[in-house]
Amino acid sequence: MECIMQGIIETQHVEGLAVLLQGLCGSQRQAVKIHDLCLKSGPNLGQVPSEMHLMCDLSHQEPRWIVRHVGGAMRGAGAEQMPALVRSVLNCRISNNALRFFHSLGYKLDHELLQTGFKFQFHKVVPITVSVTSVCKIPKLHMIEEAVPITPGLQLVEVSASTSGDNYTEVAAAVSGLAEQLAP
Amino acid sequence: MPVKWLLYWQPGSAGQVSGNILQEVMKSIESLNVTRGARWEAKAAQYRPMLRDQNLPADFARDLQSIFFSENPSKFFFILRTEHMVVEADSNVQDIMERLQTYRNRLTFVFEGYQYQLGDFNLKAGRAVLNGESIRGIVLEVEYLPVSSIEKSRTLLQEFVELWQDVISKHSLNGKISHLEPPFGSYLLSDTYSWQHTAVQYTNMMTHFLSQRS
């Protein structure tokens, strides 16, 4: 499971936010460059349609592939009280033939995005990641060099942490507390 | 990673595999100066796609297999035989496949038995059981610890298997050890041995046992 809060920031203020984050975190920022491929099940495959994401982390010398499944968000009265979104998420490392594999299983590429920017790793109660990224669309199939920002003047800020089933209240509070420090 | 060869017991004419034969094979190994180790297990499965409407065309993989090794619990392997593809993932990929609900387990093969150490060799002897019910084969695995090159270890492993065959023959077993040459080349696997090579060997063996009459 994951607790997450998302917001946007004008591109002109990104470096200011980076300075604030560095001051709060005390460590260097890490580059983010992720090619996100959203795959959906083909017609007639599975009792209900399904989707997952193949994320290729391009920030290292060798690309690293992860398959990610995002489930539904927590619902109900308890969820409405939560300061952060709590949802089911599974991440799993996978070999670099994953795209061909899922295509052979009957999954089709629905859309792909490139996220570039930076992140900081905090430890407040639990490990929390704050990332600031530009989300780009890829006009030609897999041509990430030609990616263009979907919203050139705005970037996405995400504050997220993993949680188990029994500590999400605590984790959501920690995520929310950190996010409040970043609000203008 | 050291090279492993996966072998199987080929019964003599009119013979069948059984738990008794496995016991005799294990006794023949234990007659050597071996150190007996822990039990081992590998679980293989074959899947079929789940279709919403059986009458509609379904251009999906029909030969999806998987394998999990108790010795390497953090990893899980998928094989697509027609595509000659082996995929390696963290073992929680099973949870993702469960949530996607697009492929259903059609049958399960469990390879299980005991392992032994004999100098530079690790040996395994065990049975292959289909769906928890019938023994479909007896498998033997030999691992040569000093070498990770498949080609460089070939001659030595062949000689070891011949010696092992001689030892087993002295125990009056009607049959022989056979090596199923694995199709590493068609899977584009390198000469350096890895868990992906082991995954191909075991799923290849499962397919072989399934093709034999029970």
From TrEMBL, chain A:
Coiled coil: none annotated. Pfam families: Med18. InterPro entries: Mediator_Med18. Keywords: Activator, Nucleus, Transcription, Transcription regulation. It is found in: Nucleus. Belongs to the Mediator complex subunit 18 family. Component of the Mediator complex, a coactivator involved in the regulated transcription of nearly all RNA polymerase II-dependent genes. Mediator functions as a bridge to convey information from gene-specific regulatory proteins to the basal RNA polymerase II transcription machinery. Mediator is recruited to promoters by direct interactions with regulatory proteins and serves as a scaffold for the assembly of a functional preinitiation complex with RNA polymerase II and the general transcription factors. This is Mediator of RNA polymerase II transcription subunit 18. It comes from Ceratopteris richardii (Triangle waterfern). The gene is MED18.
From TrEMBL, chain B:
InterPro entries: Mediator_Med20. Keywords: Activator, Nucleus, Transcription, Transcription regulation. One of its GO terms (molecular function) is transcription coactivator activity. GO terms for cellular component: mediator complex. Its main location: nucleus. It comes from the Eukaryota. It is found in: Nucleus. It holds the Pfam family Med20. The keyword Nucleus applies. Component of the Mediator complex, a coactivator involved in the regulated transcription of nearly all RNA polymerase II-dependent genes. Mediator functions as a bridge to convey information from gene-specific regulatory proteins to the basal RNA polymerase II transcription machinery. Mediator is recruited to promoters by direct interactions with regulatory proteins and serves as a scaffold for the assembly of a functional preinitiation complex with RNA polymerase II and the general transcription factors. Belongs to the Mediator complex subunit 20 family. Component of the Mediator complex. This is Mediator of RNA polymerase II transcription subunit 20. It comes from Ceratopteris richardii. The gene is MED20.
